[in-house]
Each structure stands twice: as structure tokens, then as C-alpha cells.
What we know:
two-stranded antiparallel ribbon; 20 helices; 526 residues; single chain
Amino acid sequence: MGDLQMILQATGQVFTPTNMLMILVGLVIGMIVGCIPGLSVMLGIILMLPITYTIEDPATAIILLLAVYVGGMYGGSISAITLNTPGTNSAIATTFDGYPLARKGKVKKALDTSLFSSVFGGLFSAVLLLVCASFITKLVANFTSVEYFSMGILGISLIAGVSGNSLPKSIISGMLGLFMACIGMDAVTGVTRFSLGTSTLKYGIDLLPACIALIALTQVVQKLRDFKLSGGKLDDANKIDREGLTRTERKGIIPAVLRSSAVASILGAMPGVGGGVAQFLCYSEARRTSKHPENFGKGSLEGIAAAESSNNAVVGSAMIPLLTLGIPGDGVTALLLGAFVLHGITPGPTMFTKQGVMAYTIILGCLIANILLFPIGLGMTRTVAKIVQVRYTYLAPLIIMFCFAGSFAATGNTKELVICAAILIFSYLLTILDIDNTPLMLGMILESIMEKNFVTASMAYDRDYTIFFRRPISLVILGLTILLLVSLMKMNKKIEALNQANIEAIEAEHEKLDQAENVDSMEMGA
């Protein structure tokens, strides 16, 4: 079946009432989860995973999760603009100009700029995904278990990309993830490993309860802790006015949006980069090339446009290495890889030959989700913005109940609740030690891919381990892994320095604004 025929068939599957409903529901849920400070897109996806178990079509389940991803990336900008608190890490740069503009009474203009830029960036990368996916797959169609193991090594090197402030701590986290995935019965030999003689661990740790505990429950506990320490104080959302983005202003931000979308799409396709890196690089570039760089940090529409178009452009491009190579591009796509596995989908070169229609259905679903984000955003933003005012003491118990229900739904066995609680305690201890648990989750997901292909390659070549270096493609992949590790470590240092410089500059601008407001208040009082 040719690519065009598969695309046509996939188009018919996407535009079914069920799939369209899933996209709409996913967008709204993503916006809600994304806008609540302390939560994240990853949490939204994990909360929806148990629900996808009731969906018969795996493509429909993945489309729902992708819609949550798309909606969540935009939703993070809502609280960033109204509360100066980014709902997601990828919306940090949005606060630099979004909140100052909101303080000037132009909340609607800032939100409209964010929505337009998010949709543009998302569509740009989704089209790029549609065009490039099949082409890349054909390039890697001759991969064997040797190359797949090397790709697994490349994937685990993403730890450098999600290492946060400490690469050594993230390596420890990743190794712990590899170890935890080894617990239970070996799929090749049938030998039980590291089970401590208990029946609870005999069949290993199920991926869904582990992800729920590592991401969702840990974030809820952290948020509750912060809420308690702050004395339950919540900021009031700014009132949303009626003055939106004008046609002239929209034309003025298009160069920044187009440039940021292109740059972020390239960065997003590079494993380990993600929206957090892309937003700062694109924001810095927009400021450098702007005709009015002095406006950045004071409510520049170009600044908002660069930040929002970049983090949404990462959504589609991060799916390129996931669908074509089976390698996640960032933390969210690492979680999506786990969702693929849970639903019996094997992403990689064979997906476009064995499950081509499903692959294109997922890609087109991502494209439609970005298109529908615009009307949904226009209609729901004002309502969603009010959710940030709900007391977290009401939200947290509901989220916790849903998480444990989802853990139980994974297998219907109460032992998953015990495992989920144990991993939650372990994960929280890691956060106290300032060890990120994202590399741990990445290690758990990639371990089975690496082990299976390593054993297969070893058996096929009579334990000749030099085969990983003698096969040209495998050697190139391993070489790229080394280059990626070095470049990611250097990039982390540059981004950290750039982030600090941007924050210091914006804080200085905010202090000037506060001083100016105080002077105005004193003059009015006089």
C-alpha cells in the first residue's frame, strides 16, 4: 500500500465522530492541566492513560493523549500571563513579556498572541512531521537488532538532555530506572531477577503504575507541600479585558513566529532538547533580531510570540524521532512511548510498513488537534483561566484518587496499588535529594528495547560484541551518541547561563515597572 493510499485511508479514520470527540476532549483537558501551576502536560497524559484502556482502537487512544499534549502546551501560557506563574516548564519565557503586558490591562491581547503563535507553531511542526516521517523511515528500513540496540544507547543518552542541574545525579536516576525495569521474570530466559522472593515483584513493575507514581503523584505531593508552606495563599487572576490582537499586530509578529517555529522544529527533532531549551533559544534570537529589542521584558508581543510558537512547534517535531526511530525526543514523548507500548504499538521503522495507516492516523490527528486548538482556545480560555483560582486542597484529593484508580485499572490487581505507593515514597525521596525522576522513567521505558535487541544480536552473531562497531550504521549511531552527549552537556551549560541572564534582565525590568507604579500611586495620592 502506497503512502498516499495510507494517508487517504488514515484521513477517513481521523474524521470519525469518536476521534474528533477525543481530540476536543483532549484539548480541553490539556488546557486545564496545563494552566494549573505545579501540574504539567505529563500529568495530564498520565491521568488520561487509564481512560485509554477502555478505548478499543489504539490510534484513538494515542490521538487523545496527543490532544492533551497540544492543549497543555498552550494552557501553560494562561497562568504565565495572568499570574506570572508558568503552568508548564515550557511557558517560563512567556512570563517575561506576558505578565508585564497583563499588568498594563491587556490580558486579552497577550492571550490572543499566545493562542495565535501556539497554533502557528503547532501546525508548522505537524506538517513537517507528515512530510518527513515516511522519508526518514525509508532511510532506516534495513535496521537489524544491532542497530536497534545502538538506537537504544542513543536514547539513553537523552539523560544528558533531561539532566537539569546535575548530570551525575541524572545518570544515577537513569541507572535506577534500568535496574527497576529488570525486576521480575526475564522475557528471554524466564529467570526471575531481583524479586526478593516476593510474589508481588515476580512479574516485574508495570509501566503504568510506575509512571503514575513517578510523575503524577510526586507532582501532587510536591504541590501540596508548597501550598502548605505558602500558608494556602493564592494569587488572584487578572481580569480578562476585551481588547484582542489586531490585524496589524498579528502581521507584525509573523516574522518572529515563523522564525521561532522553524528553529524549534529543528531543535524538537533532536533527542533531548525539548520545549524548555527551544523557548529560551528562540526568545533570545527574537530579541536579537527585533527592530524594538528594548520592548522585550516590558510586554513585547514578539517576545510572547517567540516563546509560545517555539514550545508548541516542539510537539510535532518531537514525534519525528519517536515514530520513525522509536526514540523519544523529550520527557513527554518518553511517556508517550510508554503509552505506545501499553497499547501494543511498536514505533520505529517497521511502523510505517506494518502499521502504516495507524501511523498516519496518529500524525493527522496531531495536525487536526493543532487546527482545532484555535477555536477551542478562543472559546475556553476565559473559563479555563478561572480554574487557577480553585483551592489546591480541593483539586489534590481528586487527582490522587484518580491516580490510584488508574494504577489499579492497569492490571486489576491490588498489588499495583502497593507498588505505586512504594514508588511514590521512593520518588519523593529522590526529589528531596534533588534527583530528577524523569531519567528514571526514561531508563524504565528503554530498558526492554535495549535488552531484547542486545540478546537477539548476541545470539545472532555468536556473542561477537564487536559487531556493534563493525556494522557501519551501528558505528555511525554510536558516534552520534557521543557527539550528542557532548553537545547536550555544552548546551545545558549555555542554556543555564542564558536562562539566568534573561531572568536577571527581566527581574530588573519588573523592578523598574514596580517603581514607576509606586511613583504614580504617590503622585495620585498627593
